[in-house]
Write a structure and sequence with these properties.
Radius of gyration: 24 Å
Largest sheet: 8 strands, mixed
Structural class: alpha/beta
Distance between the termini: 16 Å
Helix content: 25-40%
Length: 403
């Protein structure tokens, strides 16, 4: 991914910064659009994964809608000129002001997560003389087989309405005259690599839509969420997820009626691989048991490793593979020699005053020196958006290539 010309262009840039490959982003979006278009599936981009303006513009140009989980994200989607008829609003804790803003802009749907929320939206819509379209987010109790922090579809999770509450949901919908029931919504988790999870989800979706239709409540929209994972270990070899296989599962296993639309809310799968966090080595600390690379990027720029021990491939892009060869090394005032490659194991850490500020332990890298550029790969999703100003860190910087 990183040519010598590109790395050379980074040398005079102030670090850390997020580098975006907009050409790869467009290729990924086009691939997804073509695969989904084969079945007339609808895509909403999950803004929580990335709300960089250049990224959102590419997503909008691809014709995708917006999946929002806060009033701020709804506002961002509106201000970014996403088609309001393609904006959906989910989240377990929508405030009155957030709901009112979404009502004023006539978004496509509220994905509702509790009976009380149905009642609040109905009351606020009535006050505005509007009718709000709602989809019921149902907890399918499907195990996503992923990290417990990003699993959302089990009974123990806070998300969605449990199946035993559906009779009360149906009753509430029938008496709330300012609500229009349009469909059902599901999301089982994130970074899912086991395609059998999505087959299990389809079984649950089929059961739930049958439940509503048996009660005289037609389901127009089947919103199956997102969750498709990416290859963090091999970002160059697998830069674009297998969208064809992913969408074909839903075509094959969902009972889709002629009048129904199938909607997806993809985030990570679309943007993760298009960005890397580029950082400069501040110091090397060589010890008896540990060698440390101390970067100028920290958990304030990339929270995922500290938050849930997420893996990101770490590369020294100042040292090309051709330069990694046998040579005598000076380490900790003693001469050592690696017969094959000039490499060492390092703990790669940031400058933040927290022991959790670590990007990787025992990472095998070319022998690294102060000033080398390090790339933390696959950071286009949940990288920049989770950055903070802790320790009064400076604002995120950006570098782009492609259009």
């Amino acid at each position: 991914m990183f040519s010598e010309e590109l790395v050379s262009s980074f040398k005079n840039q102030e670090t850390p910064f997020y580098y975006y490959d907009l050409a790869l982003l467009k290729q990924t979006l086009d691939n997804c659009k073509d695969a989904a278009g084969a079945y007339d599936f609808h895509i909403h981009f999950a803004l929580k994964s990335n709300f960089n303006d250049r990224v959102l513009n590419q997503v909008k140009l691809a014709g995708f809608g917006a999946d929002c989980v806060s009033g701020g994200e709804v506002k961002k989607a509106v201000e970014s000129d996403f088609d309001k008829r393609k904006i959906v609003f989910a989240g377990v804790g929508k405030s009155d002001s957030e709901i009112n803003y979404a009502l004023e802009h006539d978004i496509f749907s509220f994905n509702v997560e509790s009976i009380q929320e149905l009642e609040v939206i109905n009351e606020l819509a009535a006050a505005k003389g509007k009718t709000a379209s709602v989809a019921i987010r149902i907890n399918p109790n499907v195990d996503a087989h992923t990290h417990h922090y990003i699993t959302t579809g089990l009974d123990e999770n806070k998300f969605g309405i449990n199946s035993w509450d559906l009779p009360a949901v149906a009753e509430t919908l029938k008496r709330c005259s300012n609500l229009r029931f349009i469909g059902i919504h599901f999301h089982v988790g994130s970074q899912i690599m086991d395609m059998n999870v999505f087959k299990s989800l389809c079984v649950k979706v089929n059961e739930m839509q049958a439940w509503f239709e048996e009660r005289g409540m037609p389901v127009k929209v089947l919103n199956v969420g997102g969750g498709l994972g990416v290859d963090y270990q091999n970002p160059d070899e697998n830069a674009i997820p297998d969208f064809k296989t992913y969408f074909k599962i839903f075509k094959d296993f969902l009972n889709i009626k002629p009048y129904q639309e199938v909607h997806f809310e993809l985030g990570r799968a679309l943007v993760a691989q298009c960005s890397s966090l580029i950082s400069r080595v501040l110091y090397i600390k060589n010890g008896i048991k540990k060698n440390f690379i101390i970067l100028d990027a920290g958990m304030t720029e990339l929270m995922r490793p500290a938050l849930y021990q997420a893996y990101h491939k770490i590369e020294n892009i100042s040292v090309s593979e051709g330069k990694v060869k046998s040579e005598k090394l000076k380490v900790d005032d003693s001469e050592t020699f690696n017969s094959e490659l000039s490499t060492l194991n390092y703990d790669v850490v940031g400058p933040i005053c927290e022991s959790s500020d670590s990007f990787g332990k025992e990472v095998l890298l070319p022998v690294t020196k102060r000033g080398d550029l390090i790339a933390l790969r696959t950071t286009g999703a949940y990288g920049e958006v989770m950055a903070s100003g802790y320790n009064l860190r400076p604002a995120i910087r950006h570098v782009y290539s492609g259009k």
